């Protein structure tokens, strides 16, 4: 851990030798979509209770209200398919937060998920007994008729579009929120990301990647249309990943940005202008007008591309957040015993309960996991 938090690439790579002997066997391979109902799911997907993380010296004392201005608000989706990733993400935030009791999670759950919102609520409460959180129900019919086919079926999940509705789902008193995907872990104090200033009239902040070929996110038909392509005429658009964003919900609501995004989704239904699911509408509305955040806050792409999900290495520089965007997910590859090297950096945050783990893992390995976890 560096003096100013986070991890440097050399620090991470130095841990791989230790992790090589710590690949833990899994008792079964998850098949969430095949679970018939919420009750059965609750019986299959069990999690160990997380450690109790307490505030450090200097943290403000909060009342019971979710509108307290000293709270750090984080929004995440919560569903049966990515539940294991969501739990690990929450665990990582709490572990590294200077004021973990002042973090408030807003979980967005689909109305018709195989696990009901009530079951998901119970799972979160049993895993994090003192966590401040609420579960907001997202009605998929709000967006289902706007979704077009994508290059990967997972990108068509209506819950991917829930971030568009945060201004409506969250209480009006929540004026600012960090949106996080479920396939990531935070290895730094979330307060640092929360402190990002959105200058001027900017509505969102995110790490930008201006070296990326921006034209590939839209079809040739889009770029050849003189009217549509003119949307970027007064901007210098750069790619950004929507899995990590700081959002000003006051400006979001006032600017009716949900409807601006929906407008482009409607155009997409009539005339195909992109292939990548929920990302391109955000680019069309915000690219070139994003508060740029340090790249350390989204080391993305660790899940490989959207087709093969091949292994990836870290980008150069310090790391505050590891993001397995792409097809491959660390829990699935670990269970299949085909992990990528960086998947072992996700493993210490995994709270998934395996009844036979003690018989499969010797005392030395368990002690090593505990020791290495302190570095992450």
Automatic annotation (TrEMBL):
<keyword id="KW-0325">Glycoprotein</keyword>
<keyword id="KW-0812">Transmembrane</keyword>
<comment type="pathway">
    <text>Glycan metabolism; pectin biosynthesis.</text>
</comment>
<dbReference type="Pfam" id="PF01501">
    <property type="entry name" value="Glyco_transf_8"/>
</dbReference>
<keyword id="KW-0472">Membrane</keyword>
<dbReference type="GO" id="GO:0005794">
    <property type="term" value="C:Golgi apparatus"/>
</dbReference>
<dbReference type="InterPro" id="IPR029044">
    <property type="entry name" value="Nucleotide-diphossugar_trans"/>
</dbReference>
<dbReference type="GO" id="GO:0016757">
    <property type="term" value="F:glycosyltransferase activity"/>
</dbReference>
<keyword id="KW-0735">Signal-anchor</keyword>
<keyword id="KW-0808">Transferase</keyword>
<comment type="similarity">
    <text>Belongs to the glycosyltransferase 8 family.</text>
</comment>
<dbReference type="InterPro" id="IPR002495">
    <property type="entry name" value="Glyco_trans_8"/>
</dbReference>
<keyword id="KW-1133">Transmembrane helix</keyword>
<dbReference type="InterPro" id="IPR050748">
    <property type="entry name" value="Glycosyltrans_8_dom-fam"/>
</dbReference>
<keyword id="KW-0328">Glycosyltransferase</keyword>
<protein>
    <recommendedName>
        <fullName>Hexosyltransferase</fullName>
        <ecNumber>2.4.1.-</ecNumber>
    </recommendedName>
</protein>
């Amino acid at each position: 851990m560096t003096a100013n938090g986070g991890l440097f690439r050399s620090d991470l790579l130095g841990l791989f030798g230790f992790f090589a002997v710590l690949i833990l066997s899994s008792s079964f391979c998850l098949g969430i979509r095949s679970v018939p109902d919420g009750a059965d799911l609750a019986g299959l997907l069990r999690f160990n209770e997380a450690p109790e993380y307490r505030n450090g010296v200097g943290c403000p004392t909060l009342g019971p209200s979710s509108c307290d201005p000293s709270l750090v608000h984080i929004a995440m989706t919560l569903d049966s398919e990515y539940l294991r990733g969501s739990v690990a993400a929450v665990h990582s935030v709490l572990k590294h937060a200077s004021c973990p009791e002042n973090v408030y999670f807003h979980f967005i759950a689909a109305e018709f998920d195989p696990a009901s919102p009530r079951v998901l609520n119970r799972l979160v409460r049993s895993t994090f007994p003192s966590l401040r959180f609420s579960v907001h129900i997202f009605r998929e019919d709000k967006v289902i008729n706007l979704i077009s086919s994508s290059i990967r079926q997972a990108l068509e999940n209506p819950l991917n579009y829930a971030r568009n509705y945060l201004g409506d789902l969250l209480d009006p008193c929540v004026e600012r929120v960090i949106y996080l995907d479920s396939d990531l872990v935070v290895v730094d104090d979330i307060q640092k990301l929360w402190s990002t200033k959105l200058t001027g009239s900017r509505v969102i902040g995110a790490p930008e990647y201006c070296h990326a070929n921006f034209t590939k996110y839209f079809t040739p038909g889009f770029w050849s249309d003189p009217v549509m392509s003119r949307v970027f005429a007064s901007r210098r658009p750069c790619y950004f990943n929507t899995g990590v964003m700081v959002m000003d919900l006051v400006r979001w609501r006032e600017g009716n940005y949900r409807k601006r995004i929906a407008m482009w989704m409607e155009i997409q239904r009539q005339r195909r202008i992109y292939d990548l699911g929920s990302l391109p509408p955000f680019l069309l509305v915000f690219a070139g007008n994003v508060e740029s955040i340090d790249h350390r806050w989204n080391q993305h792409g660790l899940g490989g591309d959207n087709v093969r999900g091949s292994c990836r290495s870290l980008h150069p520089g310090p790391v505050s957040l590891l993001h397995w965007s792409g097809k491959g997910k660390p829990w699935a590859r670990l269970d299949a015993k085909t992990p990528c090297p960086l998947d072992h950096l996700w493993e210490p945050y995994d709270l998934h309960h395996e009844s036979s783990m003690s018989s499969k893992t010797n005392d030395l390995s368990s002690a090593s996991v505990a020791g290495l976890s302190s570095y992450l």
